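[job 4471] stage=fold_predict status=RUNNING
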Amino acid sequence: EINGIYGGFQGDGVKTVLPSAAHAKITCRLVADQHPQRIIDALTAHVAKHTPPGVQVTVTPLDSGATPYLMPADHFGNEAARVVHLELYGKEPFYARSGGSIPVCSLFLENLGVYTVNFGFGLSDERAHSPNEFYRLASFQRGQQGYCMLLHQLGKEA
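[job 4471] inference complete, writing structure tokens
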């Protein structure tokens, strides 16, 4: 994703001088089995391949990446989450593989050897991560209740 492009004169007023530099901020959303450094290397090679003669390009990776995380579908934590959803909503949960940037999940797996169960309680009309997002107090409270129930359920299975 290109998150931002900037260059040239950016102060008040107008300057007619052609800019000598431009910048782009790019992020890559990784999925399971992708490695951040390999993606950086591939992106850098792609940019270099398409750089016109006489143009100098510099790629500066930031230390903000996370290894992708994928929990096995048959993990007991998912069954515990299913039981919680059944109790909270009275029907089977809808399973959807989705991405997100929660680096602690992969860190726990890499360093502790444990999977992390996640589920959300935000509603679609709350517009998560949009400029006008909000989160209802009822959604927050249901989340608190759900995670307490999850800990209880996991304790029964341990």
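[job 4471] summary: Helices lie at 36-49, 76-89, 103-112, 137-157.
[job 4471] exit 0
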